[in-house]
């Protein structure tokens, strides 16, 4: 029987890559995010053609708990339950703390941290109801910034550190039910989210955009290479597999050696 996978923030970037990986294995996939309607429909159609599973789109705004609840409700009513939840939705804003707009702080915390709490609180009862033999999987896409900090990213770093705390707490609460909760901590992945912050970082630091890539983003990634979307997606597949049933309450870093320093 095909598994049902919900991936937030999955109309582009890492989220869409994760959705593609699960769809290729025959899963039913529910994607979510913003974008042009024609692009979203093209992505949904592509997903359905990968492995034979169904692909649905839900436009839930990750700052609105009622819409998040409806996202999970739709997935459960359509497919019976949610087997895998991947919390991936994200945005970024780069500014000094004293200049950081309050509304941007609130938006980042809502999307990066609170949305994961809201998806989990609705998914967990579904996963528990399936019984002890069931292997529900919750995977939170965190960041190397869940482990270390960078200047000008106070909200992002705070939220990602919070995601690790939420991951550990949920793992302890759910261990006896056979449900695992883990985080993936990528280094810099050249996604639309990362590309958008390059001009802002260049302005804040007074350097060129190319220097942002080489001297800021890849400075601490010992491999001097961006992490690929496919590498993150492969890790998500592993954490959702039977082979990972004893891995819970922890994180896997994919950061080119960044946090080894």
Q: Bin the helical content.
A: 40-55%
Structural class: alpha/beta
- Tell me the count of domains: 2
Instruction: Give the SSE order as H and E letters.
Output: EHEHEHEHEHEHHHE
CATH class of the largest domain, named Alpha Beta
Q: What is the residue-averaged pLDDT? A: 95
Task: Give the low-pLDDT segments.
Answer: none
Rg over CA atoms, rounded to whole Å, is 18 Å
SS field, number of helical segments: 8
Distance between the termini: 44 Å
- Globally, the shape reads globular
How many DSSP E strands? 7
Strand percentage: 5-15%
CATH topology of the largest domain: Rossmann fold
Query: What is the CATH homology-level superfamily of the largest domain?
Result: NAD(P)-binding Rossmann-like Domain
Query: How does the major sheet shape up?
Result: 7 strands, parallel
Question: Strand order across the biggest sheet?
Answer: 3-2-1-4-5-6-7
CATH architecture of the largest domain: 3-Layer(aba) Sandwich
């Amino acid at each position: 029987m095909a598994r049902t996978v919900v991936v937030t923030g999955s109309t582009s970037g890492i989220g869409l890559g994760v959705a593609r990986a699960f769809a290729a294995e025959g899963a039913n996939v529910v994607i979510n995010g913003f974008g042009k309607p024609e692009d979203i429909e093209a992505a949904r159609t592509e997903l359905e053609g990968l492995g034979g599973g169904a692909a649905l789109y839900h436009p839930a705004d990750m700052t609105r708990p009622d819409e998040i609840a409806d996202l999970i409700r739709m997935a459960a009513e359509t497919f019976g339950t949610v087997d895998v939840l991947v919390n991936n939705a994200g945005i970024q804003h780069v500014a000094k703390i004293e200049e950081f707009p309050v509304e941007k702080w609130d938006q980042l915390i809502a999307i990066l941290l609170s949305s994961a709490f809201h998806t989990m609180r609705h998914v967990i009862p579904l996963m528990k109801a399936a019984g002890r033999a069931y292997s529900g999987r919750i995977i939170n896409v965190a960041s190397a910034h869940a482990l270390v900090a960078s200047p000008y990213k106070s909200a992002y770093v705070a939220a990602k550190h919070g995601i690790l705390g939420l991951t550990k707490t949920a793992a302890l609460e759910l261990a006896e039910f056979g449900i695992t909760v883990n985080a993936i901590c990528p280094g810099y992945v050249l996604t639309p989210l990362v590309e958008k912050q390059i001009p802002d970082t260049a302005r804040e630091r007074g350097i060129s955009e190319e220097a942002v890539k080489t001297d800021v983003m890849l400075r601490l990634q010992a491999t001097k290479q961006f992490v690929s979307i496919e590498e993150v997606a492969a890790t998500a597949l592993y954490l959702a597999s039977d082979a990972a049933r004893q891995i819970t309450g922890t994180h896997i870093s994919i950061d080119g050696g960044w946090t080894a320093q």
